[in-house]
């Protein structure tokens, strides 16, 4: 028995993947059923398998979150932040004269 998919406006062909894919006809987007054959024991092809899709989305999300965190860190410190952080780390590690270090860093910044 074939299922009716309202978005496609027709019945689903059981010999093809059940995924609803978008394509362009001229400048207009259209939807159709995926043309690939489903994997054995599944209703979806290897590309549209829901578990694989979720894995790919999670991998992209993790990659993007790492990229966004790096960009946020760069924006947070800006032009002088790295020098100031280096000076604070030197003070933390036991720099003997923090005032001269601060004056030195501020001279480089301005």
How would you describe this structure to a colleague?
It is a single chain. The chain has 110 residues and is an alpha+beta fold. The protein has two domains: 1-77, no CATH class; 78-110, no CATH class. Helix content is 47%, strand content 15%. The chain is built from three helices and four strands. It has a two-stranded antiparallel ribbon. The model has no long low-confidence stretch (mean pLDDT 84).
Beta percentage is 5-15%
Structural class: alpha+beta
- Note the total helix count: 3
Dominant shape: rod-shaped
Strand order of the largest sheet: 1-2
- Biggest sheet, in brief? 2 strands, antiparallel
Low-confidence spans: none
Helical proportion, percent range = 40-55%
Strand segment tally: 4
Distance between the termini: 76 Å
**Estimated radius of gyration:** 28 Å
Whole-number mean pLDDT: 84
Write down the domain tally: 2
Helix-strand pattern: EEEEHHH
């Amino acid at each position: 028995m074939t299922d009716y998919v309202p978005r496609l406006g027709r019945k689903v062909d059981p010999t093809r993947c059940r995924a609803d894919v978008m394509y362009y006809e001229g400048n207009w987007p259209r939807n159709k059923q995926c043309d690939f054959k489903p994997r054995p024991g599944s209703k979806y092809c290897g590309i549209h398998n829901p578990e694989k899709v979720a894995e790919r989305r999670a991998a992209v999300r993790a990659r993007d979150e790492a990229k966004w965190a790096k960009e946020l860190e760069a924006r947070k410190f800006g032009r002088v932040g790295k020098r100031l952080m280096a000076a604070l780390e030197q003070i933390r590690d036991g720099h003997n004269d923090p005032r001269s270090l601060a004056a030195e860093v501020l001279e480089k910044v301005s």
